[in-house]
Structures are given as C-alpha cells and as structure tokens.
Amino acid sequence: MGKSTRATVCLILLLLTVSAGAEDAAMDVDDECKTEGGEAQDACALSALQRKAVEVLKRNMLGSSGELGTVAARELLVPQTVSPASKEEVEILAIINEEFVDVKGPGSSWKSSYMPDETWQVCGAVDWSLPDITTSKQYRDGEEELGMMSKCKSSDSMDSLCKAMAAFTSSMRRLGKRFPKGPKFYNAFVTSWGEHNSWVNDSVGEVNYTARPPFAKVFDPNGIIEYAICDVIREILSQSPKQYGS
C-alpha cells in the first residue's frame, strides 16, 4: 500500500473507531488489497476497515459468556458485507489522497501539548458563524496553545504530524464544498454544550431539549465542519479523547 493510501487508511481508521485494539483493524488491509491499485486500492481499504472496525467493536462488547450484552448491540453489529466503492466514494478518497500525498511518516510526539482538555468547551467558546473566524486572533491563540504555531510555522520544517493536520483540515473543507449532504458522522458534532453552538447559523433547527436525547433537525450537515476540525485536532494533540463520558 502506498504512503498516501496508508495516510488515508489512518485517517479513516481514526474517524471510524477509537476503541482499544483498533490497530487490529488495519493489520491485514495490505494483504487483502494487494491486488488493487490506485483509487481502487483505497476503496478496497475503506471497505476492509469498515468491516474490520465492526469486528473489533464486536469483540470489545462481548461479555464473559461470549454473548453481546444488549439487544441494541446485537442489532447494531450484524454481519457486514463489502460492496464495490461507488463513484462518490472513489471521488472522496481521491480528494483525501491528494491532500495526504506529502505525509510520509508518523511524525513527532508533542508531549508539551498533552493536557486535560475540555475540548467541547474550548471549541464551543468559538462562534463559528462569524466571518473569517479561522483567521481570527481567537482561532490563532488556540493553535498557539497547542504548539501548532511554533512547530508548524514553516512549510519547509513541518514534520508529518503538521502535514497530516493540514491535510485533514483541507480535505474536510474540500469535501464539505464538494458534497452538500455532509460527512456521515456529522451528528456526533452537533452540540450546544459550549458558549456557542457547534454549527453555523441556520444549519441546524431549534433544539428540542425535552426529548431524550435532545433532538434537532439538521438542514446543512456541513455547518459543523469547522467545529469538527477543532474538536478532532484538539483531542488528538491534547490526548484527551474522553469528552462525552459524563
């Protein structure tokens, strides 16, 4: 599997599963897709990871008796089939590959950025509806806090971690412009926990807080793109993935 494909696989795996043992899901992708090439290889890798991620989650959810603990879990983790990638999936993977083409390795570890971080609160303090918010002082201060400004300030000196974050950000924005229906995982980033909503104005309807869980109609799933970028990057750099445990 090529370097850009491996970067794609790593990004997809990151977004598909955060369970312990997730590395198992990627172990056999090279062998399974070795006969494919280019974008077809990426599509094969995506299908393989989707199936293997479900297998990992299923193993982690098995009780001591070997049975899934809840009816909901049994219904959720039904056997998965792999189908050929659609034209849209191939285009999505092509965009991701283009963005990750310069990511050549795992990058360095930024231990100085490790900290307990209430990411939902920090990213929720930003009003994502404001024009040019990503070039504002507030946005830059957040990047500075995480060490991004000092470690990624020069394109010549950027290691693969800097390049991967830039590729992730750019691919998310490109995909948002290209596909109006938005990312499949948009619902995970619809939150009003912070000072501001996680979406831009008019992209999400009125929230019904009396429902359990609260419910709102999403008019534009791409309205959460910038909040999602903030959330994912902060969780990774600060090593604070447990945001919703309470």
Summarize the structure.
This protein has ten helices and no strands.
Task: Please explain how this structure is put together.
With 246 residues, this protein is mostly helical. It is globular and about 45 Å long. 46% of the residues lie in helices and 0% in strands.
Q: How would you classify the helix and strand content by structural class? A: mainly alpha
User: How far do the termini sit from each other?
Assistant: 39 Å
Q: What form results from the Cα inertia axes?
A: globular
If you average the pLDDT, what whole number results? 74
Low-confidence stretches: 1-9, 12-27, 64-74
The biggest beta sheet is recorded as: none
Number of helices: 10
Entry keywords:
mainly alpha, 46% helix, disordered N terminus
Topology readout:
Blueprint lengths: L2 H14 L12 H4 L5 H24 L9 H6 L10 H14 L18 H6 L12 H9 L2 H4 L8 H19 L46 H14 L8
Helix pairs in contact: 1-3, 1-5, 3-5, 5-9, 9-10
